[in-house]
Design goal:
Length: 318
């Protein structure tokens, strides 16, 4: 694997590790159990957009450093993380922007969950397509323990995933639950023994990278349509929106279906070639690389803080 530090956040806070066609975004702040600072939340939308547009990347993964996924939003800066631009009300702010950006990624996304996944970190895990967990994982949605309110977008996503009864139990009690119970509730895709965790992740991301990216991305789009609030009202038109029509044309006119057919008949593994490069630029909604004004504001603040630290370090060595 290779690693690169991101310019938007302090060194070590976020890194990207490329492992073949998989790009892992690593929450790399182990001294704080990978709690996300405002700058880290603010950097995620732009980073996700870049990886989603990179034709060399087929799978995007999210994990934490040091055997822990994340303790959630940094409590010391929680109002900067949650604050809404303009009103300052803690409606979700940067957490909601990052969650939405992750949910909008066209490529398959995988959350690698071990150690703890607490509070707002669940919003990131829950927005991924697949959640692979080590058996020792503990999940806790803990706002009720510290007197804040979980973002409405996160509550809605949780209710859609597990239903109102389980969502209420998690949010009202703030209790931490083990991986096997979370799996039974539908929060996790797969739970494996701790010693099998890395091998299971490799198996999952390798399999995803070998699939037709046209099929994968089209299915992600159709799942989003099925979850849309007005899906029931438009049942007769399901899959007949302009993006779906364009995707079905890609199936008819593009290379992947023929590659798959020939490989099946020849009893060999298909090597699909569709990458989606340029497709979503034409057919997808416009997305900000910065995550909005609030994200830009916090990035600018972080840059001023870093500049001040560097000046102070330089003056000490003069």
């Amino acid at each position: 694997m290779t690693a690169q530090s991101l310019p938007e956040v302090a060194p070590g806070a976020l890194t990207v590790r490329h492992d073949g066609p998989t790009a892992w975004i690593v929450l790399d702040r182990p001294e704080r159990r990978n709690a996300l600072s405002p700058a880290m939340w603010a950097a995620l939308p732009g980073l996700l957009h870049e990886l989603d547009a990179d034709p060399a990347v087929k799978v995007i993964g999210l994990r934490g450093a040091g055997g822990v996924f994340s303790a959630g939003a940094d409590i010391g800066e929680v109002f900067d993380c949650l604050g809404e631009a303009g009103s300052g009300l803690p409606r979700g702010g940067l957490l909601t922007e990052a969650e939405a950006a992750l949910a909008q990624v066209h490529k398959p996304t995988v959350a690698a969950l071990e150690g703890f996944c607490m509070g707002g970190a669940w919003m990131l895990a829950g927005a991924c397509d697949l959640r692979i967990a080590a058996a020792s994982l503990r999940i806790g949605l803990t706002p009720a323990r510290i007197g804040i309110v979980f973002p409405a977008s996160g509550v809605r996503s949780l209710v859609r995933l597990v239903g109102p009864a389980v969502a209420s139990a998690l949010l009202l009690t703030g209790d931490t639950v083990p991986a096997d119970r979370a799996e039974a509730w539908g929060m996790l895709t797969r739970v494996v023994a701790d010693e099998q965790f890395e091998a299971a992740l490799e198996e999952v991301v390798t399999g995803l990278a070998q699939r037709s990216q046209l099929s994968v991305q089209a299915h992600k789009h159709l799942v989003r349509l099925a979850l849309a609030e007005d899906a029931d009202d438009e049942a007769d038109a399901f899959g007949r929106d302009p993006v779906s029509e364009a995707l079905f044309r890609e199936v008819r006119d593009g290379p992947d279906a023929r590659i798959g057919q020939q490989a099946f008949l020849g009893k060999r593994r298909p090597r699909f070639t569709w990458t989606g490069e340029g497709f979503w630029t034409v057919h997808g909604p416009g997305r900000s690389r910065t995550g909005g004004g609030r994200a830009a504001e916090l990035r600018a603040r972080w840059q001023r803080q870093v500049a001040a630290v560097l000046r102070a370090q330089a003056s000490r060595h003069e």
